[in-house]
């Protein structure tokens, strides 16, 4: 298989697997012990995100060992790039991923995936502001198209009175901010030192896991629920889901390396459509015309920005 075809296949797989990860995670959040008390319902997304990143970091360690990159990862941690990747990890993990899972809890995987898929466009805007990367008129039009589509998708007169719906929509937007800033900070930090995408991912997952485990979980009194979950049947299920998430990241970075970030991003953001597909197939949830149309326009807008 040619390098280009490998890149296209990897990009498509990254989007499909993240869509599957999203829907399976929504199932976990609806299971015991995450739903037994009001406190557990609130803590569920944080504990789930922590365990998801914990397993993902373990999967990445195994990957680094298999590809003999672990020593290089340790060396990168000592560099300026390593420090910026650590900062980016906080935006992508505790801020971005936790908000993503909270949004899934309140508005479901379909809406969350569609709204969050705007992050490449917002990332391009941050790159224009902080990295001084030029953004064409087409890029600005794509950004505006994505934002308008998200607003239309989020506006629902019959649900607007629900505080949970508004909260979930807001959390999905926080996820967009976290993920978009993560990519820009990583790009800024990796300019000086040669760091491979998988090495950066290894650092990201470990730092995110430590930040959750040492700061977030104790701060929100989530240690008891974490212990209960780790002793329950769904603990290994979370590890199984994290395998899909980790594979999605690896495919995504492989696509970036093979066909470049433009085509890789354009293929990766199709996870919003895949999430809707798996939502219908696995959870049997209803699908609306507005959700389909807005998702398509969000992806078109993001592609317009990404191809800038």
From TrEMBL:
The keyword Electron transport does not apply. Keywords: Membrane, Transmembrane, Transmembrane helix. The chain crosses the membrane at residues 12-35, 41-63, 84-104, 110-131, 138-155, 167-189, 201-222, 234-253, 289-306. Residues 6-153, 167-306 form the EamA domain. It comes from the Bacteria. InterPro entries: EamA_dom, EmrE-like. It holds the Pfam family EamA. Belongs to the EamA transporter family. This is DMT family transporter. It comes from Paeniclostridium hominis.
């Amino acid at each position: 298989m040619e390098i280009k075809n490998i890149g296209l296949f990897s990009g498509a797989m990254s989007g499909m697997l993240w869509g599957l990860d999203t829907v399976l995670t929504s199932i976990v959040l609806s299971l015991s012990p995450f739903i037994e008390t009001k406190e557990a319902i609130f803590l569920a997304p944080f504990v789930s995100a922590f365990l998801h990143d914990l397993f993902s970091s373990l999967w990445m360690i195994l990957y680094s060992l298999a590809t003999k990159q672990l020593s290089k990862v340790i060396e990168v941690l000592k560099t300026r790039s390593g420090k910026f990747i650590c900062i980016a990890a906080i935006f992508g993990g505790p801020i971005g991923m936790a908000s993503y899972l909270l949004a899934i809890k309140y508005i479901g995987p379909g809406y969350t995936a569609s709204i969050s898929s705007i992050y490449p466009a917002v990332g391009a805007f941050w790159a224009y502001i902080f990295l001084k990367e030029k953004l064409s008129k087409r890029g600005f039009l794509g950004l505006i198209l994505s934002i308008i589509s998200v607003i239309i998708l989020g506006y629902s007169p019959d649900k607007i009175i629900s505080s949970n719906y508004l909260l979930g929509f807001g959390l999905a937007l926080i996820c967009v901010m976290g993920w978009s800033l993560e990519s820009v900070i990583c790009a800024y930090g990796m300019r000086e030192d040669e760091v491979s995408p998988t090495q950066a991912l290894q650092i990201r997952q470990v730092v995110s896991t430590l930040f959750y485990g040492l700061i977030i979980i104790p701060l929100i009194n989530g240690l008891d629920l974490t212990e209960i979950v780790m002793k329950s049947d769904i603990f290994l299920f979370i590890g199984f889901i994290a395998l899909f998430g980790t594979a999605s990241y690896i495919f995504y970075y492989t696509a970036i390396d093979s066909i470049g970030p433009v085509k890789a991003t354009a293929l990766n953001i199709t996870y919003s459509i895949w999430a809707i597909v798996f939502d219908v197939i696995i959870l049997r949830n209803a699908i609306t015309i507005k959700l389909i149309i807005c998702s398509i326009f969000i992806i078109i807008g993001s592609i317009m920005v990404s191809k800038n």
